Amino acid sequence: MKAVMFDAYGPPDVLTHVDVPTPVPRADQVLIRVHATTVTSAEVGMRRGEPRWGRVIIGLRRPRRGVRVLGLEFAGDVTAVGPAVRRLRAGDRVFGFTSFGAGANAEYKCLSERASITTMPDNVAYAQAAAAVDGFTTAWHFLHDLAKVQPGQRVLVIGASGSIGTYAIQLAKYLGAVVHGVCSGRNAKLVESLGADRVFDYTVEDFTTSGERYSAIFDTVGRSSFARCRSVLAPRGCYLPTTGLVVNAMLTAGTALTTGPRVRTGMSVGKQAALDALRGLLGQDRLQVVIDRIYPMAEIVEAHRYVDEGHKVGNVVIDVVGDGRRNEP
Question: Do 49 and 164 share a domain, yes or no?
Answer without folding.
Answer: no
